[in-house]
């Protein structure tokens, strides 16, 4: 596959340095790359970009759901949602730690998020308007996240692959809690069923966008797949998601908001309408319904925490000075 990819998208085999060729041979043999080992600068940068953006998505992803913790309909649902949102914080932390092994600091990653130089998943720029949205997010958004992240357990960079194992286990519970909310609502009163349908209507296309632009517009896929940073193309995973999710919607008795959705016997897949890619790129440019609010919340949290970071640093400086003084006195 690599040879085929590099012909159109990167340097030919002959253009690779001996180190790069040896590195690619390790990737092709399925070896994991570990933090202190030699790697091409492009591989390191691509990983920092992808892992960093993934970490930011987990952290920003807490906001739309956090919005509903105080309004969950029962104590049990509240406890479950609280635990889920805490899981997302944990995912962010594993991923920031994995990114740090590549030589980037967490502060640098935050600065890039806050200044708009790094992205987070487009999906979190949509509002959560009703309790049914908690169901739709768990079912569709975590469902799409799992579809993308299960293959990443086999990604070539060791710390990222290992972080994904635990994350995927937790994400599958998230998906099931979302589906459980949808089951309850889709089979509840007429008003609840309408809320569930409305949530599906609003989250369907933004969930399809989570997989990234169509393959022809994906700038990084070819090289990232050659390096086994990505294991599948964006369109492959989007199709897999549609194929698995449509029967789940049918089971709920809900209608996927796509009049052209149909099973294609020859392909063995569903044919479906692509999301509005203009809308996707607008959201990426910062013009989605909640971009300002989401980024604003993260910047505020960072600014509000300045006194605490300053306190930690002052304490660390004093402790170091005390240790030095004790050592000097003992000599
Ligand atoms: N939202 C925001 N930006 C996106 C995007 C999306 N849904 N899809 C693609 N992009 C951006 C890319 O980052 C890239 O921009 P950049 O060069 O500035 O980084 C550009 O669009 C072109 O897209 P490509 O297809 O070339 O980019 P990638 O090869 O990086 O593929 C990806 C995009 C499939 C999202 C890939 O990065 C990936 O698999 N990332 C890891 C998984 C991840 O980040 N998931 C976040 C989902 S949310 C989540 O996990 C939280 C959970 O709790 C629900």
TrEMBL record:
Top-level taxon in the UniProt lineage: Bacteria
BP term (GO), one: phenylacetate catabolic process
GO molecular function, one term: phenylacetyl-CoA 1,2-epoxidase activity
Organism encoding this protein: Roseivivax halotolerans
A family per Pfam: PaaA_PaaC
The protein's name in its UniProt record: Ring-1,2-phenylacetyl-CoA epoxidase subunit PaaA
NCBIfam families, alphabetized: PA_CoA_Oxy1 (TIGR02156)
Any one annotated GO CC term: cytosol
């Amino acid at each position: 596959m690599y040879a085929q990819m590099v012909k159109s998208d990167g340097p030919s085999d002959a253009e690779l340095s001996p180190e790069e060729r040896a590195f690619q041979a390790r990737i092709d043999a399925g070896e994991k790359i570990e933090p202190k080992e030699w790697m091409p600068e492009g591989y390191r940068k691509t990983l920092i970009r992808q892992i960093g953006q993934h970490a930011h998505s987990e952290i920003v992803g807490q906001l739309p759901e956090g919005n509903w913790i105080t309004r969950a309909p029962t104590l049990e649902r509240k406890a479950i949602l609280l635990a889920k949102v805490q899981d997302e914080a944990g995912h962010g932390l594993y991923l920031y730690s994995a990114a740090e092994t590549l030589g980037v600091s967490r502060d640098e990653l935050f600065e890039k998020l806050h200044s708009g130089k790094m992205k987070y998943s487009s999906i979190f720029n949509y509002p959560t308007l009703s309790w049914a949205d908690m169901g739709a997010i768990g079912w569709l958004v975590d469902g799409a996240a799992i579809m993308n992240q299960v293959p990443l357990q086999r990604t070539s960079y060791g710390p990222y692959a290992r972080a994904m194992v635990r994350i995927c286990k937790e994400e599958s519970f998230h998906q099931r809690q979302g589906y459980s909310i949808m089951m309850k609502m889709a089979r509840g009163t007429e008003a609840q069923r309408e809320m569930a349908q409305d949530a599906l209507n609003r989250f369907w296309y933004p969930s399809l966008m989570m997989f990234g632009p169509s393959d022809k517009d994906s700038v990084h896929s070819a090289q990232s797949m050659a390096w086994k940073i990505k294991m599948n193309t964006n369109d492959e995973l989007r199709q897999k998601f549609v194929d698995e999710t449509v029967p789940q919607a049918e089971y709920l008795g809900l209608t996927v908001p796509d009049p052209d959705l149909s099973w294609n016997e020859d392909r063995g897949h569903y044919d479906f309408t692509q999301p509005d890619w203009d809308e996707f790129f607008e959201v990426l440019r910062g013009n989605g319904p909640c971009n300002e609010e989401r980024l604003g919340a993260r910047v505020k949290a960072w600014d509000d925490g300045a006194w605490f970071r300053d306190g930690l640093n002052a304490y660390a400086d004093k402790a170091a000075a005390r240790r030095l003084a004790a050592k000097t006195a003992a000599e």
